[in-house]
């Protein structure tokens, strides 16, 4: 006979602690833990990162080629002459906007995988599709975020960078806390404002790592990308907390009492 006992608990912070700023966010500790998770889960996590990157690149070039006759030729001419045809910058912006919106649910799934790692759970590549159940909400949040950043970039570019940072937790709030898109964006902004300086330092360092990785023909992205997602997961855990469920199974039979088995489950 088997009896299951389920118990929910919260790991890390909470919405209340996020809004009050009463949680620990050490830059060095976040980086150290993120690096540990990156190494520990590298071979199981890297395939999801690679699939997401390929998907984003494919959609980017499809969107670009729908606006430009031959994007490859344009890039070759830019490398030789340093000039771009009229309207090409706008085409790049639209292509970038398109891939971010279309791949948003898969991006959310990868974020959930990294968040699970920060909670001590293992993941499989197929879990990158876990964000699909939140497709509409995630796309709405992404659209609003990108539109606001686009408008801010026209007025004052530093504000666009701030909004990118301010909305960085919205996707996980939608998927893990089941929040509505606009509520998630506003909550993320309010919480980030409580720890703006350490968060800005963290993401500035990550931006520097991306630049360094690209200088080495992009090979370094194999480490920087999973590191980035793990940093996001750890920050989210410390700020808002992660809801986990302990399932204790008690196996009993007529001859002996059996063993008690426990497992931790996160339900996206």
Automatic annotation (TrEMBL):
The keyword Membrane applies. It comes from the Bacteria. The chain crosses the membrane at residues 42-64, 97-116, 128-148, 154-175, 196-229. Keywords: Membrane, Transmembrane, Transmembrane helix. The keyword Membrane applies. This is Proline and glycine rich transmembrane protein gene in bax.
